[in-house]
Amino acid sequence: MITAERIVRLGSETAFAVSEEARAFAAAGNRVYPFHLGDMDLPTPENIIHAAHRAMRDGKTGYAPNAGIPELRDALAADINRSRGTHYTADSVAVQPGGKPVIGKFILALMNPGDEVLYPNPGYPIYESQIEFHGGRGLPYGFLPGKENFHLDMDALRRQVSPRTKLLIVNDLQNPTGAVSPDEELEQIAEFALRHDLRVLCDEAYFDIRYRGRSRSLASFPGMEERCVILYTFSKKYAMTGWRLGAAVGPRQIIGVIAKLNLNDESCTNHFVQIAGVEALTGDQSGSRRIIDVLKERRDAAAEILRAIPGVSCYVPEATFYLYPDVTGLMEAKGFSDYESFRKDVLRKTGVSFCTRLHFGKALPGETRRHLRLAYSGIGVEDIREGLLKFAAYAQG
Ligand code: PLP
Question: 370 near 327, Cβ under 8 Å?
Fold first, then answer.
């Protein structure tokens, strides 16, 4: 092996492999219904595209400051304060090429090798990858089924925390479960973080992908602004996944370190994309509102069909663009005991492509229920209906 030892600890995002498999299946002439990746098939709002064009023509094509252009840092601080009731200033913001880079930079800035980090599992796989890559010890916590949605397993946090635990990662409005913490749960998490002196990564990638009610940030609870770093992204709210624009928002000292990591890694985020980001935040918001309306219609169409399938139960989350149905009964009825054979069988026989619980971490001890994750951000209502009706027929066949 010629690569460094740490490379064996670097994880992956296996949803991309499912995407590749679906692409190959489609290239062989098959119809595919893409529910696998949290990418979006909706266009970025026109005003944002125009702002980027204008900026390119105006010569905004050179390097920008490492932590981002002042206009965007100002606009982000103002927007986040308005929506979260926080008190950030421009120097609480380090602009990033996407939300994802905040995860590794937060861990690099705050975790020493051997430190423990509490993180959600099932969850976005990059947390575990980055914790282990940088020599930390991941402590996974799960979600429990409730009346209307999953809720965070507070006991799993309390059971595992130790004096070596330094960081907590929270992804409220969660990928993949769609779990949304009510205020009381956020309050308990805040108390827990304060009691154990934890720094917290608040992954708020889906903060604005909300169909009912209002999102609340953990950073808005007393004493939390000082210990939270918010992962902000333009990817979902403005359908800008491929533009790569996001930010780390938090205490100035930590943000200073994160900006220094920017200086070392990518120098800066693309200049004209940052100018488009200012337009996204301060310009006409009707494009973003339309995106939410379209996603809601898709959620309702998908949930209605899934919930009618025998052996399947599914919450209808008021946020994110994921459904996380329990398919334990269906897998048993079809004679499958492992996820991958089931997933491949469904793809081959119906063209419906999705991720399973396995793509979001290893099953926790004692976990017996089986789940799939269906993303409806990259597939229109007609295809959702057509694909899931084929899935329903397969389930009952
Ligand atoms: N966090 C969560 C929970 C996500 O699901 C994603 C993307 O799917 C991200 C962060 C990162 O998104 P991006 O890098 O496009 O901002």
Answer: yes
CATH number at residue 180: 3.40.640.10
Closest alpha carbon to 32 in 340, 330, 383: 383
Q: What is the CATH number of the domain that holds 291?
A: 3.90.1150.10
| Statement: residue 362 has pLDDT above 90 | no
233 lines ligand 1 (CB under 6 A): yes
* Relative orientation angle of helices 381-396 and 339-350, to the nearest 10 degrees: 110
Element (H, E) at 144: strand 143-145
User: Does pLDDT of 397 surpass 90?
Assistant: no
Token look-up 């004679």 returns 335
Query: Given the CA of residue 233, which atom of ligand 1 is nearest to it?
Result: 16
- Strand runs labelled E in 171-217: 199-203
State the distance from the centre of ligand 1 to the C-alpha of 204, rounded, in angstroms.
9
Q: Which of 226, 256, 282 is the last residue of a domain?
A: 282
The kind and range of the H/E element at 168 are strand 165-170
Question: Which pLDDT tens digit goes with each residue over 237-276?
Answer: 999 999 999 999 999 999 999 999 999 999 999 999 999 9
- For residue 76, report the distance from its CA to the centre of ligand 1, in Å: 18
Q: What are phi and psi of 131, to 5 degrees?
A: -60, -50
> Which pTM value belongs to this model?
0.97
Containing structural domain, residue 358: 5-43+287-396
Q: What are phi and psi of 256, to 5 degrees?
A: -60, -40
Measured from the CA of 241, which atom of ligand 1 is nearest?
Answer: 15
Q: Whose CA is nearest to atom 5 of ligand 1?
A: 175
Which ligand 1 atom is at minimum distance from the Cα of 101?
14
Ligand 1 atom closest to the Cα of residue 244 is: 15
Q: Which helix (H) or strand (E) holds 101?
A: helix 100-110
**Structurally, how many domains does the chain consist of?**
2
Q: Probe ligand 1: pick from 130, 175, 215, max atoms within 8 Å of CB? A: 175
Q: Is 120 in the pocket of ligand 1 (CB under 6 A)?
A: no
Average pLDDT over residues 172-191: 97
How far apart, in whole angstroms, are the C-alpha atoms of residue 49 and residue 277?
Answer: 10
